[in-house]
């Protein structure tokens, strides 16, 4: 797996520092509120698990599953709820925990759905942000770990074709990894003809 990585953008230590900083800030800001952290599966699970342990005030967590990405690297724009929240959101201060904000389409759609359930407030915490890629212009990170350049990154929960989520750092894949997959796709489709 390590051999597929071309460059490391954020080491495990750097991510740890970022997460602790965010946890501290959120703990201060939400100390008199009813913090409910909601994350969208699966990319955010590792960030969620680390962030909640960096938060020192009482909080609840819940998860949603939506489909927005296929197995490629571009957002399809199609968002469908596959698993909904279990908890009534009325009066809770929602913090949407995202792994990476790209086009923002997924989160924009999810936020609209959650708004109709009357939470007291909704904010967004993203570990990584690619602002140049934004298409949903109403989506801004209230808490941001770091900016990343416009490249497809993997690790720390983020996948390419469902793999590399278990890398403890964030990096970019070697171009040949994508080419291998493209070639396989072409071979598969021509063998069906
Ligand atoms: P958006 O709707 O375009 O903002 O898509 C956001 C989701 O796409 C993230 O929560 C990730 O699951 C996935 N995604 C976006 N950029 C990357 C990336 O660079 N690597 C891996 N997954 C990504
Ligand atoms: Mg993904």
What features would you describe in this structure?
This protein has 193 residues and is of the alpha/beta class. 29% of the residues lie in helices and 32% in strands. It is built from 4 helices and 9 strands; from the N terminus they run βαβαβββαββββα. A 6-stranded mixed sheet has the order 4-3-2-5-6-7, with helices on both faces. A 3-stranded antiparallel sheet has the order 1-9-8. Helix 3 (105-115) links the parallel strand 5 and strand 6 (121-129). Helix 1 crosses helix 2 (45-53). The protein starts with a strand and ends with a helix. Magnesium ion binds next to loops.
In short:
The chain has 193 residues and is an alpha/beta fold. It contains four helices and nine strands, in the order βαβαβββαββββα.
Q: Could you tell me the strand content as a percent range? A: 25-35%
Name the structural class: alpha/beta
C-alpha Rg, in Å?
17 Å
Helical content (DSSP H or I, runs of 4+): 25-40%
Bound molecules: inosinic acid, magnesium ion
Main β sheet profile: 6 strands, mixed
State the assembly state of the protein chains.
single chain
C-alpha termini separation: 33 Å
Low-confidence stretches: none
Sheet with the most strands: spatial strand order: 4-3-2-5-6-7
On the 0-100 scale, what is the average pLDDT?
A: 90
Instruction: Identify the overall geometry.
Output: globular
Strand segment count: 9
What is the H-and-E element order? EHEHEEEHEEEEH
Number of helices in the DSSP assignment: 4
């Amino acid at each position: 797996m390590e051999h597929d990585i071309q460059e490391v953008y954020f080491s495990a230590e750097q991510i740890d520092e970022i997460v602790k900083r965010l946890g501290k800030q959120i703990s201060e800001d939400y100390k008199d509120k009813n913090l409910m952290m909601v994350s969208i599966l699966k990319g955010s699970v590792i960030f969620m698990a680390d962030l909640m342990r960096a938060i020192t005030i009482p909080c609840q967590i819940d998860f949603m599953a939506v489909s927005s990405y296929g197995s490629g690297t571009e957002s399809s724009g199609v968002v469908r709820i596959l698993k909904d929240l279990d908890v009534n959101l009325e009066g809770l201060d929602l913090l949407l925990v995202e792994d990476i904000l790209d086009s923002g389409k997924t989160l924009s759609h999810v936020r609209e759905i959650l708004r109709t359930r009357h939470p007291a407030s909704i904010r967004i915490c993203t570990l990584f942000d690619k602002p140049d890629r934004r298409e949903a212009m109403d989506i801004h990170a209230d808490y941001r770990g770091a900016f990343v350049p416009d490249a497809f990154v993997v690790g720390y929960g983020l996948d390419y074709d469902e793999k590399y989520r278990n890398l403890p750092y964030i990096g970019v894949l070697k171009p040949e990894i994508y080419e291998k997959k493209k070639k396989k796709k072409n071979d598969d489709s021509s063998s069906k003809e």
